[in-house]
Each structure stands twice: as C-alpha cells, then as structure tokens.
Predict the 3D structure of the following.
Amino acid sequence: MKLVTALLRSEQFPAVKKALFDADFRRLTATSVMGTAPVSEQNMYRGEAREISLFRRVKVEIYVEDEQVELAAEIIAQGAKVHGGWGRIFVMNVESTQIIWEGESGDDAT
C-alpha cells in the first residue's frame, strides 16, 4: 500500500477531485496548508510594503494499492494541468493500516 500526496494550488483542487472521483478513487483527504515558494511576493498593506513568503495550498492524500500508484499520480497530474500544472506529487510506503471501528487491519483495511 502506498500514500500518494499532492501539493496543489487551491484553484486546482476541484479539477483534481473530479478526475479522481471519475476514476473511482473516492477516498481522499484534503487539507488546507501553507507553503513557501522560491520567489516571495511584495504586497502593499495599509501603505506598507510587505513580503509574502507563505502561500495557501491544498494537500491531497490518497491511499492506493501498489499497482495503482502510477495511475493515481497521472490522474492527479492531469487534473492539476487544467489550471496551470503547478504542484508536486509524493509517493510513500504505508507500513500498516487499521480501521478503528471495525478492527480490520492490513489489506482488509483499505
């Protein structure tokens, strides 16, 4: 089992979510996060110049079987390209899984 994590701009999330749902990846977690970028922005706030170095992002996490990793990453990438193609995708191993209310663990808990 693998954890596929994508960091996206918020405007990319609806297209990525729709693409994942259309491909029958229906269990995902989306979190609002802040992240840095290589270049900061200068904005005026109440007459003062302010440097903005943290930007709002959406972190999407989806657990998939080993053989579905490439498909899930490709679907996320295609959905993100609808709004500019910015983002990162990470794939990590999942050691174990357990469904608390049912007591299932391992491959039964996917």
